[in-house]
Amino acid sequence: MKTITRLKDMDKIENSLAGDTGVCIVGCGTCATMCRTGGQEQVASMKRSLQALGKVLTGTLVVPTACDELSPQAVRDHKHAFDDADAVLAMTCAFGVQTLASTLMRPVIPALDTLFLGKEQAVGSYSEICMQCGECVLEDTAGICPVTACHKGLLNGPCGGTNKGKCEIGNDTDCAWAMIYNRLQAMGRLDRMRKYQPPKNYQAVSKPGKVQIPLQGSEAQ
Ligand code: SF4
Ligand code: SF4
Question: Considering the entire predicted model, what is its pTM?
C-alpha cells in the first residue's frame, strides 16, 4: 500500500516556477520512489530539465519519508540549499508538499499529482484500494471495496450493467459486485448480499480532516 503519484506535465511545472530562478528539488524515498515519480533517478532527470529551462539548482535531495519529521530535519541539514532557493519543487505526495510547506517560508511547488492509496499490480500499473471514505463497509463486502472497485462506487450492487462478471464500462474490467458475490458465496456468507447499505454519510469524512480517537487498553491509563 502506498500513495500513488503521477508526474505533472512539464509545462505546468514550468508555469508554476515562472519567476523563480533558484530551485531546490526534494524527492521522497518511500512512496514516490516506489512509484518512480520522486526517487533519485526522477530527481536527477528533473534537475536536467530545469537546468535546460535556465533554472539554477540550489540543491537536490531525496528525503527518506517526506511526509514525516524527516522533512524538517532535511530542511535543517540542507539549510543553504533551501535558503538560496526562490522555490522548492516537491517530487513527493501532497502530504510531503504540505509537510515541507509547513516547515519552510518558501513557495513549495508540487511536481506530482497525488492520486490515491493503492497497490502496484505490475510495473507502473496501480490500483486504487481505498479512498478513505470514513465509513468502511468491508465487513459486508468480503473485503472488496465497492467504493473504489465499482465504476459507480455503488454500495448496493450490482447495477443492471453487469454482464457475465464484467463491468459495463468494458475493457474486460471485472464487475466489483460480481467479485463480491463470488467471494461471499465461497465463504458461505451470501446473506450479506441482501443487506442494504444506507447512503453514505459524507459527514463521516470531516473537512478539514481532524479526528480524536479515544485511546484503548493500556494506552488509555
Ligand atoms: S469502504 Fe472502501 S473507501 Fe471506504 S474505508 Fe473501506 S476500503 Fe476505504
Ligand atoms: S457493472 Fe458492476 S462494477 Fe460496473 S458499475 Fe455496475 S456494479 Fe459497478
Answer: 0.81
Model confidence pLDDT, tens digit, residues 13-33: 999 999 999 999 999 999 999
221 has pLDDT over 60: no
First to last CA, the chain: 32
Cα-based distances in Å from 121 to 81, 94, 169, 206: 37, 22, 20, 31
Pocket test for ligand 1, best of 137, 139, 150, 155 (most atoms within 8 A of CB): 137
Cα of 97 from ligand 1 centre, angstroms: 25
Q: What is the mean pLDDT of residues 143-154?
A: 94
Decide which of 165 and 1 is more confident.
Answer: 165
Please identify, by atom number, the ligand 1 atom nearest to the C-alpha of residue 145.
Answer: 2
- Distance in angstroms (rounded) separating the CA atoms of residues 94 and 103: 14
Ligand 1: which of 116, 139, 140, 148 to mutate, judged by most atoms within 8 Å of the beta carbon? 148
* CATH number for the domain running over 2-115: 3.40.50.2300
Longest dimension (CA), the chain: 64
152 Cβ inside 6 Å of ligand 2: yes
Spell out the domain ranges in the chain.
2-115, 132-197
